[in-house]
């Protein structure tokens, strides 16, 4: 490897030192990096849009725990990626993003026929949704190289590296900013308080998604002291349903037993890694606060604001009391729970991948040991579940993945089907054909009793899917879905199932 006068490490050395085994890429200005990669050991996966690329990387990490690498082009490539990276930041998912930048100020803008075109301030954007960003030349000296490797290996959030395209420079790193949010120490300090209340039967441990790094230790203490355990909706996968002390997840879509215990019996609640949103507080917090119960909360935001071990919120905003789920009896309709029962009756391992707005689908589900749910909340747009499922399946193609998606979401991300076909991934996409953007339309009806701009129709599904070369079918009865699913298991091939007007009760 050719070495500069004062620098010796390249971007390729960074990827080797973090044991990179997959790169998600849309070829562009950094295409030379792909030529230098050892493609025998590193898998190259591309897509048609950067946002989908980002959610594929998220799915890969959720399945493997390994840091995925994304390479995109400068400008629009970077900004297209922002939604996925913001979601990864909120979910504490480390992703390494590589992109080009130009150090020479004379190249910051380009003369366009219609005027001056300015590249976006990508550093200003990325520093708010990453743990660290680095702007580097092609070669790095040993000190800067070690600094980058350390940050990547210890990060719980995305990291951005901008690479100067002026490869004639012999300089190494030219600018960096590290914004480390180390909550783990605060979590461990808060755990000390658990022993002070040991062996009481009115103690509840509330586990949120932000506690995933220390969830094992918290559960061990809860079992030791016989504390009850509840989770938020996003943290349902962190606790095994077989635990005797586990009551289920809480909130507006939560389990009745969990909400009832917090509302009527709990006196002290230790909350780890939860932002305690209105949805999480619904159905139990009003009664808990009237009894002047003690709520000890340590979460991602609070550990940055409070230096003490824990803090006790004095005032929560007044919550509306009209939380309800509208239910009806659908004797002849296909319902999500009926379809789930078909899946649940099978014994093979599978993962359900949902978008955040389908939370109510899992409110009454009890997963077996072979089943899990994968979901990214926060900024996940319509159709993100398809990309997340692709990334997860790339990591483990021996497992069956069930992706739940609305027809509006399919319109957003239908082109990612090409990746499923290309890599022959065993994915079943279950599309709730409910009238295109019904989630949006329902909200409009409640507010103004009419709808607007929600009548967009699906393209001709038959022609579209025949072009992609993927099996597809439309079901009208639950029994038909059972036949389709058996065929899916037997053939281990992707299939799209359209379920018209499925009710997500």
What does the secondary structure layout of this molecule look like, with pairings?
Layout: H1 11-17, E1 22-25, H2 31-36, E2 43-46, H3 50-64, E3 69-71, H4 76-90, E4 96-101, E5 109-112, E6 115-118, H5 122-126, E7 132-136, H6 142-154, E8 159-164, E9 173-178, H7 184-191, E10 203-207, H8 215-225, E11 228-231, E12 246-249, H9 256-264, E13 268-272, H10 278-281, H11 285-290, E14 294-298, H12 302-305, H13 336-344, E15 350-355, E16 371-376, H14 384-395, E17 400-406, H15 407-413, H16 417-423, E18 427-433, H17 438-448, H18 461-468, E19 471-474, H19 478-491, E20 495-500
Could you please describe the fold and organization of this structure?
The protein is built from 19 helices and 20 strands. It has 505 residues and is an alpha/beta fold. Strand 7 (132-136), helix 6 (142-154) and strand 8 (159-164) form a beta-alpha-beta unit. Helix 3 packs across helix 14. The longest helix has 15 residues, at 50-64.
């Amino acid at each position: 490897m050719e070495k500069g006068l004062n620098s010796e490490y390249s971007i390729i050395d960074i990827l080797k030192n973090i044991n990179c085994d997959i790169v998600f890429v849309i070829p562009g200005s950094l295409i030379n990096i792909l030529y230098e990669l050892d493609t025998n050991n590193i898998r190259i996966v591309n897509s048609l849009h950067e946002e989908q690329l980002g959610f594929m990387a998220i799915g890969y990490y959720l399945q493997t725990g390994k840091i995925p690498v994304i390479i995109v082009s400068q400008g629009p490539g970077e900004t297209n990626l922002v939604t996925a990276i913001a979601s990864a930041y909120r979910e504490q998912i480390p992703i390494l993003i590589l992109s080009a930048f130009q150090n020479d100020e004379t190249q910051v803008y380009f003369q366009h026929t219609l005027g001056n075109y300015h590249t976006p301030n990508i550093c200003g954007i990325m520093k708010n949704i990453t743990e660290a960003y680095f702007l580097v030349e092609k070669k790095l000296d040993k000190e800067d190289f070690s600094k980058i490797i350390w940050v990547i290996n210890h990060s719980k959030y995305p990291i951005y590296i901008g690479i100067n395209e002026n490869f004639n420079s012999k300089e190494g790193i030219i600018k960096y900013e590290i914004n480390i949010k180390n909550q783990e120490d605060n979590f461990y300090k808060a755990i000390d308080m658990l022993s002070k209340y040991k062996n009481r039967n009115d103690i509840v441990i509330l586990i949120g998604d932000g506690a995933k790094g220390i969830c094992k230790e918290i559960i061990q203490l809860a079992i030791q002291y016989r504390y009850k355990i509840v989770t938020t909706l996003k943290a349902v996968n962190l606790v095994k349903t077989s635990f005797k002390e586990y009551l289920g997840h809480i909130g507006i879509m939560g389990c009745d037993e969990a909400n009832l215990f917090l509302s009527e019996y709990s006196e002290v609640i230790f909350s780890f890694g939860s932002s305690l949103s209105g949805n999480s507080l619904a159905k139990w917090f009003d009664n808990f606060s009237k009894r002047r119960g003690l709520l000890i909360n340590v979460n991602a935001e609070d550990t940055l604001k409070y230096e003490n071990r824990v803090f006790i919120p004095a005032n929560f905003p007044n919550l509306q009391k009209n939380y309800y789920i509208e239910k009806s009896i659908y004797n002849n309709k296909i319902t999500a729970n009926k379809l789930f029962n078909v899946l649940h009756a099978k014994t093979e391992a599978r993962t359900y991948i949902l978008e955040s707005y389908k939370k109510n689908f899992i409110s009454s589900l009890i997963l077996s040991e072979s089943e899990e749910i994968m979901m990214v909340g926060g900024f996940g747009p319509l159709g993100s579940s398809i990309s997340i499922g692709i990334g997860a399946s790339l990591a483990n193609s021996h497992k069956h993945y069930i992706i739940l998606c609305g027809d509006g979401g399919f319109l957003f991300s239908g082109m990612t089907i090409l990746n499923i076909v290309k890599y022959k991934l065993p994915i079943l996409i279950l599309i709730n054909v409910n009238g295109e953007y019904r989630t949006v339309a329902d909200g409009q009806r409640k507010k103004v009793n009419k709808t607007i701009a929600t009548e967009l129709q699906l393209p001709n599904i038959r022609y579209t899917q025949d072009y992609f070369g993927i099996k597809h079918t439309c079901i009208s009865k639950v029994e038909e879905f059972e036949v389709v699913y058996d065929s899916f298991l037997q053939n281990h091939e992707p299939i799209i199932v359209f379920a018209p007007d499925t009710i997500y009760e």
